[in-house]
Amino acid sequence: MAQDKESASIQTALIHSDYVAPSGFESLAQAVHRASTVVFENVAALRSRNWQDKGAYTYGLHGTPTSFTLEARLAEIEGGKYCRLAPSGLAAIAMVNLSLLKSGDDMLIPDNVYNPNRELGNWLASDFGISARYYDPLLGGAIADLIQPNTRLIWAEAPGSISMEMPDIPAICQAAHDKGAVVALDNTWSAGLAFHPFDHGVGISMQALTKYQSGGSDILMGAVVTNDEVLHRRIESAHMRLGLGVSMDDAYFVLRSLPTMKLRFEAHDRNARAVASWLRKRPEIAKVLHPAFPGSPGHDVWKRDFTGAAGLFSVIFDERFSEAETDRFVDSLKLFKIGYSWGGPNSLCVPYRMSNIRNSWTYQGQLVRFNIGLEEPGDLIADVQQALGHM
Length: 391
Ligand SMILES: *Cc1c(COP(=O)(O)O)cnc(C)c1O
Fold this sequence. Notes:
Blueprint lengths: L1 H14 L27 H6 L16 H14 L3 E5 L2 H12 L5 E5 L4 H13 L3 E5 L15 E7 L11 H10 L3 E5 L17 E5 L13 E5 L2 H14 L5 H10 L3 H20 L4 E5 L9 H7 L6 E6 L5 H10 L4 E2 L9 E5 L1 H4 L9 E5 L5 H12 L3
Parallel strand pairs: 2-3, 2-4, 4-5, 5-6, 10-11
Antiparallel strand pairs: 1-7, 6-7, 8-9, 9-12, 11-12
Helix pairs in contact: 3-8, 4-7, 9-13, 11-13
Bound molecules: pyridoxal-5'-phosphate.
Pyridoxal-5'-phosphate binds next to helix 4.
C-alpha cells in the first residue's frame, strides 16, 4: 500500500509542481506559448471572458501571446488594425470567402488568380450556391459593369503570381465601393512591404506567410488583415467556426524571420531584376513578364502604386520552342530547383500549361516562371545561359 501511495504521489507530482520560474526574464526572442487549454483563475473569470477579446486568453485556438504578437506585427506592416492567422495561405483565402459569402451571393475572381483560389471558387459555385465569375485582371474601373446587386466580394491579386499582370487596384476598389462590394487582395507578392493595400481602398488583405514572411521554404501559414471592425468580426467568427488554428512553433519561426524580411525582399528584387534584364535580351525569350519592366502588363500601375518588386517573374519563350524543348531547359538548370512556392533562399523554376489555368490566354509560346532566390545573380544567369544551350 505504502508503495502504491508513493508511486501515486510521484505520478501526481509529474503533473503538478510547485515550482514557479522567477518573473522578470527578458530576452530578444519571442516566447513560444503553446496551448490547447488556457487556465482561468476562477469560475467567474471563465464565465466572464469572451474569446473575441484580445485583452485576455480563453483557448489555444483563439490565440496565445505568440500568435497575438505575430498578428499585431503583421497588421502593423500592412497598416491594418486587425489580423487573423490561418494554417496556410489557401486557408486564409477560404476564411475570407466563408466569412463573407452565403448562398445566392456572387463573387468576382481575376482570371490570373492563384489557381487554388479558383478551385475553391468553382467548388463554392458547384456545391454551395455561390456564383463565382472571372474577370480580365487588366479591366480596371470597367469592372463596374460586371458588379451585380448580389456581388459581395471581389478578389484581386497583385500581380497574378504566374502571368504577372498588375491590376489597377484603386480603380477596382472605387468601382466596388460605389456598388457596395468588398475587395480582398492577395497581397503576397508585395509581402505588404511594396504595396500598402489600405491606402488604396482595399477592404481585406490576404498574405501567404509561407513566402517572404517565413523566408525559409519550411512553413505553411496565412494571414488576413483588415482595418474594418465589422469585416474583422466576420473573419474572426469564420476562423473560430472552421477551427483554423496555427502551430505556435511555426508562428515563432515567422516572428524570427520578420526582422530580416525587408532586407531579403530587396535582395530578391535586385537579383530578379538582374536575371530578368539579362533574359530580356535573349533571342529565345519573346517576353519577360515582370511588373517593374516597361511592356509588362500593368507596368504603369506598378510604377504608380508600388515601391518595389518581389523575386518572382515569368517568361514567354519564342513560339519556335516546343513544350518538350522548354521542359528540357527547366530540367537542365542546376542551381534552380524545380518546385512550387517561392520566397525562400533557393531559386526555383516551374513551367505552366496556361490553357489549363486560364479562361483566356493570348501568348502562343511556353510560359516558365522563375522564383529568384538569394544566390549570386551572376551565378544564376550563368545557370540559365547553360540551360538555354540545352534546348
Ligand atoms: C503560395 C500562395 C498562396 C497560398 O499559400 P499556401 O500557404 O501555399 O497555401 C496564395 N496566394 C499566392 C499568391 C501564393 O503565392
